């Protein structure tokens, strides 16, 4: 499906030659270095079309293109909570996340020791019907709660999955006090249910250092 008012060759009528950049809106989150991108959405009688990622828009915000290594999807029923997941730094991993189907409350948690926003979180409703994307820099933890059945989340990642480098902090940690707008108990994997609290992860030496994360971000 293409945006409305396009010529046969795929270029919007009256537009100059070259790629069309649909800037949309960018908002800084409460976690340092994290953003939410709200793209322009094209609606017509066929449905809708949206550019979930555009290099010029991202690069202008982050100061560099997103270094895509892998794209992955997860599908979850209502009430599922995944996270709070993060990657050792080094190697570190940045993520760009959007909801391809359903609706989720996306949670961005600063786990970087020494960060001015350490321990702080922010939330964004990601809705396939009203597309938005969140960007998480290296060292920032990610979680979400599925608000509808068959919620599909898409992750663009700067690195691949290496089990020894992947960790979790408990999403139920009372010190974090993450919001779960659910009628019943959240549905968790055994790994996430048994994950250490933020304080325990710090004592175990699992949490990434802020300055290390910034250095890794610069060379992604």
Q: Would you mind describing this structure in some detail?
A:
The chain is mainly β and 220 residues long. The chain has a single domain, classed as Jelly Rolls (Sandwich), CATH 2.60.120. Helix content is 12%, strand content 33%. It has helices at 55-62, 190-193, 198-203, 210-218, and strands spanning 25-28, 35-38, 41-44, 47-50, 70-76, 81-87, 95-101, 103-110, 121-127, 133-136, 140-146, 151-157, 166-168. The strands form 3 sheets. It has a 6-stranded antiparallel β-sheet, with no helix packed on it. The protein starts with 24 loop residues before the first strand and ends with a helix. Residues 6-11 have low confidence and may be disordered.
Distance between the termini: 32 Å
Count of alpha/pi helices: 4
Structural class: mainly beta
Order of helices and strands, N to C? Answer: EEEEHEEEEEEEEEHHH
Label the overall shape: globular
Task: Summarize this entry quickly.
12% of the residues lie in helices and 33% in strands. With 220 residues, it is mainly beta.
Keywords:
mainly beta; five-stranded antiparallel sheet; PauY44; isomerase; dTDP-4-dehydrorhamnose 3,5-epimerase activity
Write the layout of secondary structure elements.
Layout: E1 25-28, E2 35-38, E3 41-44, E4 47-50, H1 55-62, E5 70-76, E6 81-87, E7 95-101, E8 103-110, E9 121-127, E10 133-136, E11 140-146, E12 151-157, E13 166-168, H2 190-193, H3 198-203, H4 210-218
Antiparallel strand pairs: 1-2, 2-10, 3-4, 5-12, 6-11, 6-13, 7-10, 7-12, 8-9, 8-11
